Amino acid sequence: MEEGPDFTAAEKATLRRGWTTGACAACAAKAAYQALLTGAFPEPVEIVLPRGERPSMVLIRADLPGDGTATAGVVKDAGDDPDVTHGAQVLATVRLLPPGAGITFHAGPGVGTVTKPGLVLAVGEPAINPGPRGMIATAIGEVAARFGGTGDVAVTVSIPGGEALAEKTLNGRLGILGGLSILGTTGVVVPFSCSAWIHSIHRGIDVARATGLTHLAAATGSTSERAARDLLGLDEAAMLDMGDFAGGLLKYLRRHPVPRFTLAGGFAKVCKLAQGDLFLHSAKSRIDMDRLADTLAAVGGAAADVAAARGANTALQVLQRAQAAGLPLADAVAARARDVVAGVLGPGIRAGVLVFDRQGRLVGRADG
Question: Helices 303-310 & 289-298, crossing angle to 10 degrees?
Fold first, then answer.
């Protein structure tokens, strides 16, 4: 069962890796703290990541106003990954604190604040994840040891335009308001790993469970999401933007269950799921037209329609033939997909599958 994108060794060799917002924030914070202690910004600035990589970044901002603070900034380079934050400025303002105060973290403009339980950070905390906090602390400690500082500082991370960029993410649904999250466990962006999307799916489940929701739904796209939400009467927080990552969602939900789960999608995507595919992108999964034709035959399809289905170009063509004949093909496909979903989730979760057409009309269902 496919779960995510894969590349050949040659393809991987041509893809350039990048740095997470957490790594960028650590570089900026290191440069700002060094400027406070020495009066000069390092150029470029280098940090050591948790796995030993040593990114070196050029500063695009270096302000030392003389008021006990310093601000440094770098440009986020996500490599060849289509990251929403690629090209954004990541700024860190560092302010000296009394000895023994430790490091405090704060959200500047464009960085969000946690407003719902269930995330790794408490409500009210700036959305600077533990991994980036650790990278920043390591960078601050390195500067303190080298230049005689105490390492007691307040670090404010900002991303100009981050609030608008956050609208392209799932932060609002997760209850992270006011901007982006500062992310990155390793500090490295692996092109097309889709880790940020899957991370958001997992955090959506965490938040929903923490707020007491007992019925969650996931959709492959915006049309099926709207239709499923209207049909089921669910709160927005119960809706998960699954995209093509059925495997990443279902396996996490198995470990963090809720009483009821519904998966919604278009007919073609649900056909792939019914085949056992857990990654539904067209680059990695294809509809087995012979299997779909066999399903049509099983629900009473005429021989001519079944033969035409085997040679059809798209699943939609087969569905339209079934609908014209009044046959419940989409229901049968939904039932098989539900069996796949239930098999991954295991016992204890009531699973259902809804199939919608491109206009958001319900064409098939299997509700368990």
Answer: 160
